[in-house]
Write a structure and sequence with these properties.
Helix 2 runs parallel beside helix 3. This protein is 40% helix and 16% strand. The strands form 3 sheets. The chain has a 7-stranded parallel sheet, with helices on both faces. The chain has a 3-stranded antiparallel sheet with strand order 7-6-8. The two termini are 27 Å apart. With 323 residues, it is an alpha/beta fold. It has 14 helices and 12 strands. The structure holds ligand FO1. The site of ligand FO1 has 17 residues, from helix 2, helix 3 and helix 7.
């Protein structure tokens, strides 16, 4: 007789990934390939959302949607590939275009506006958009359907500004005193996905502006903690040099925001922010020296290659399947 264990079918593991734009767009497609698209749900930050020319723009949801559809502009780190900016250039004549919306991207924002105008929730609008982009299997959910104002930042110079003004218009140069995160209710779709999850992954995203904004939503933190297994992924690899203006900009924003809670931009310090939320913390092999600090923060360190998405996804799936 054949040994039963060899032929026992493995129950699919349901993973929920909480993420911002850049970290989510890099990891979600690789994770979908590694675990199977139907086993993955992504809950995206909406704290970065803005009202642009009367249209709701959702940078994090959209980056992840484009990435899952194979359309994301990886080099730029936002928006879609093969983009043109004729509208942006035309708008600049009128002195109003620090936020560069691409021509093709605009089609998505207009369609979302029509869905929202017809009474659809952001969850339902996102589902319709993602389907039209050709994404199959993976569910992409906004962290909230009820956000009326996104993240605002109280700057050290005394001003309080919307997140995108600081991040895009001012390139995240101004030191920040405090991030003001919205306390709107978490979306029912996100809470339902978390209830059904076998494993929750706090993605390699900004711990304040992305994950902090998701976790600040009403009901979210309790739903995450109730999940059977929870892993946080370091958003930083200390042992590599960040090159490229886009990545430097992103890292500067993270450093500035971490400083508001007295944290440093390194795995051990970031792990401390996830104490009581995650049980394990995934850090890069180049940052192995931080493992003891991660353990002192109360999380069990797991080492993987964070710069190679395929390997990172494989390490997450291996962790999720461990019992
Ligand atoms: N980021 C920029 O640095 N400059 C832009 O002009 C810009 C425009 C933009 C338009 C649509 C969109 O979905 C995202 C856009 N982003 C832009 C990126 C985005 O605002 C940030 O990367 C995230 O909010 C930070 O997570």
């Amino acid at each position: 007789m054949r040994p039963a264990a060899l032929f026992a079918t493995r129950r699919p593991v349901k993973i929920v990934l909480l993420a911002g734009g850049l970290g989510g767009a890099r990891l979600a497609p690789a994770l979908a390939d590694a675990i199977g698209a139907r086993s993955l749900t992504v809950i995206a930050n909406v704290g970065d959302d803005l009202d642009w020319m009367g249209l709701r723009v959702c940078p994090d949801l959209d980056s992840i949607a484009y990435a899952l559809a194979g359309l994301w502009d990886r080099r730029r780190g936002w928006g879609r590939r093969s983009e043109s900016f004729r509208l942006r250039d035309a708008l600049s004549r009128f002195g109003a275009s620090w936020f560069s919306v691409g021509d093709r991207d605009l089609a998505l924002h207009l369609t979302r506006a029509a869905h929202l105008e017809s009474g659809k929730s952001l969850t339902a609008a996102t589902e319709a958009l993602v389907r039209r982009l050709g994404v199959r299997g993976v569910r992409l959910l906004p962290a909230s359907d009820a956000l009326t104002a996104g993240t605002r930042l109280a700057l050290c110079d005394g001003r309080t500004v919307p997140f995108q003004q600081w991040y895009v218009r001012e390139l995240a140069w101004a030191p920040v005193r405090r991030a003001i995160l919205a306390r709107a209710p978490a979306s029912r779709s996100a809470l339902a996905a978390l209830r059904e999850a076998d494993a929750v992954v706090l993605g390699p995203s900004n711990p304040i502006a992305s994950l902090g904004a998701i976790l600040a939503l009403r009901g979210m933190r309790q739903a995450v903690v109730a999940a059977p297994r929870r892993l946080a992924v370091s958003p930083v690899v200390v042992g590599r040099t960040v090159r490229g203006t886009g990545l430097e900009h992103h890292a500067r924003a993270r450093r500035r925001l971490l400083a508001t809670v007295g944290a440093r931009d390194g795995p051990a310090s970031i792990a401390r922010l996830y104490r009581g939320l995650a049980e394990q913390f995934l850090l890069d092999g180049r940052d192995r020296s931080e493992a003891a600090g991660v353990r002192r923060a109360g999380l069990e360190p797991v080492v993987a290659d964070l710069l190679d998405e395929r390997r990172l996804a494989a390490a997450i799936v291996k962790w999720a399947r461990e019992r």
